[in-house]
Automatic annotation (TrEMBL):
It comes from Arsukibacterium indicum. Residues 16-80 form the Glutaredoxin domain. The keyword Iron applies. The keyword Iron-sulfur applies. This is Glutaredoxin. Keywords: 2Fe-2S, Iron, Iron-sulfur, Metal-binding, Redox-active center. Belongs to the glutaredoxin family. Monothiol subfamily. Transmembrane segments: none annotated. It comes from the Bacteria.
């Protein structure tokens, strides 16, 4: 599968998806740690892709998203943004209802999005 097709499939199959460095339990950078903690604090399950394990996704996703940095939060196929936007939305109380509404539509376990 081509990298771009893989990215599109991951976004389509995971209503709440965080492309990050590391994992929510073991983040590999401060920005990814902050973003995943904000999502965890929302109290709902979300999927993630460790871009350090997938250099092809790390190279292609910024072009596809037109967003140069990681982490990247996608909700229902739409790019929400990176760490600063995620934290700002969380602090304003705007992120929690978005995540809760999306989770209510489709319950999915906290899992690594299939990047193979």
């Amino acid at each position: 599968m081509e990298t771009l097709d893989k990215i599109k499939q991951q976004i389509a199959e995971n209503p709440v998806l965080l492309f990050m460095k590391g994992s929510p339990k073991f983040p590999s950078c401060g920005f990814s740690a902050q973003a995943s903690q904000a999502l965890i604090a929302c109290g709902e399950q979300f999927a993630f892709v460790d871009i350090l394990q997938h250099p092809d996704i790390r190279a292609e996703l910024p072009k596809y998203a037109n967003w140069p940095t990681f982490p990247q939060l996608w909700v229902e196929g739409e790019l929400i943004g990176g760490c600063d936007i995620i934290l700002e939305m969380f602090q304003r109380g705007e992120l929690q209802p978005i995540i809760k509404e999306t989770a209510a539509k489709t319950a999915k376990p906290d899992t690594k999005a299939d990047a193979e």
